[in-house]
Amino acid sequence: MTRRNELPGARKSTAMLLKPLVVIGLIFALTSTSLSQDIWPEHRGPDRNYHLTSKMDYPKKWSVATDEGILWRAPLPETGHSGIAVWGDKLFLTCFRRLTSEDNQRKGTWASETRGHCLDAESGKILWSCDLPGQRPNQVNGTFTDSTTPTPVTDGEHVWFVNAGGFMACYTMEGKLVWEKEFEVRTKHSAKQFQPFLHEDNFYYAMMRDSNDPERRPQTAKDWDKNSKSGWPWMYVRCFDALTGKPTGILSQGISVHSKGALGMLNGQTVLLHAKGGGHSPPEKPFGVSLSRLNPVLELVWERPDLYFEGTHFIDSRYAYCFDKADFFVLDLAKGKTVKQIRIRGKGTFIEFDEEKGVYQNPVDVSTRSWKRFLTHRTNIGVGKYHFFMGGEPGILGRIDLESEQISYLQVPVQVIVQNGKKKFSWSDFESGDATGSGFVVEGDKRRLSHGYGHISAATPIVVNNRIYFSTVLGTVYVIDATTEHFDENSLVAVNDLGLPGKTWTLAPFTASNGRLYQRTSRELICIGN
Description:
By secondary structure, the chain is an all-beta fold. The protein has one domain: Methylamine Dehydrogenase, Chain H (7 Propeller), CATH 2.130.10.10. It is 2% helix and 37% strand. It has one helix and 42 strands. The strands form eleven sheets. Strands 29-26-33-32-31-30 form a six-stranded mixed β-sheet. Strands 1-36-37-38-39 form a five-stranded mixed β-sheet, with no helix packed on it. A four-stranded antiparallel β-sheet has the order 2-42-41-40, with no helix packed on it. Strand 12 (167-172) and strand 13 (177-182) form a beta hairpin. It is globular.
């Protein structure tokens, strides 16, 4: 790509010049994953922060459309959202059971039953599968979540699957059932952002209290009511004995369906950041963000009811990072106090690509752009002194410099297209399609067939050796160098694809293991390697 002048007013930065906040963040980014194995046992990765530092070199450039850098591709039996858990030579993911025309209802395709799959990491061959019957249908290929959204969790001896429509199960690595459990879901928005995890022999997931629990609020909402202010029972993070499925605890503060939860460490103990709030009038109150210790009593560390967070948050060793409707907050992890509050909406500089000239332009002030949304939810991640996110407008990536508080935006291609066997970029036009592994044609919410920015729950990015992998619903993947001093075209390592335009769709996050990247679309599983 064509180089351009330096950003105006940019300052050189060395470790000696960094403020204490930045130094701590940088040290965490460089050292926290040093002991990581190249496994990816759950949605958040080996260190549960979406980071992996490895001696192995991971792929940066590839193309499924032209078969560049692809080790293998394997068809999936049906569509699904879940990430891919990896341990050794086995992969785990979740799909819907085979869809039929009977699943098409008045407002699209809805299904309650899913299937867990164990696959060979060397070929993608399905080794064994299990049924995960749901309690309630959810919209297939939902723009935000569906019944397949939870990523499986494994410890190398067992694997845990969750159907967000009301079912969870534990199996051995060889496919033998250990336990299974139905759970009740709400009349609407039962598919959740929360991602399950293991901690000290317990399995954690978000759900309602049991129907016989005296502290459960009654469910009086009408069927499919999506804006009930009082008729839904609260959601809670609950934990179960990992090998029996028996309930062992509950976080009393409640959690919104919009919060996927962020894990971290505080004074040697594991903590969970969880939020209440978001769209469709969730009943859990007060809106805000809380931190809880995952000790035997599930102790509340602090609560910030004065902040409105939907669940777009991240933790490092000292701080919690959260967005609200206009600002970015850095909170002291131990006390929840605001360390920094940085205005995001309408602030910063923007580097646009001139399609006619084929070059990047000099930066302009963001105030010259009328952007409706500044953030695509659940796409933010921290690396050292920087925080990155997908913008709310198509083809926009953002970076926050925590030291200078400078907000920088870079335009990137919306889609990779192939003409006469050669790749080229499309900066605004795109072609979408969510063809499934079975060939079934999904119906319903047309927003799922947009560009993947803005009002959507895009895949959480991952960081491998200080390179960020952003993935959009179109299968466009941006690889970003997280260490560059200026956030410009030199930060853009590669723009890759997961398939041909109109035939590629995904809301799943990437997985990194043993020098390979794994990703899934609505139709296939892909293994990317050097």
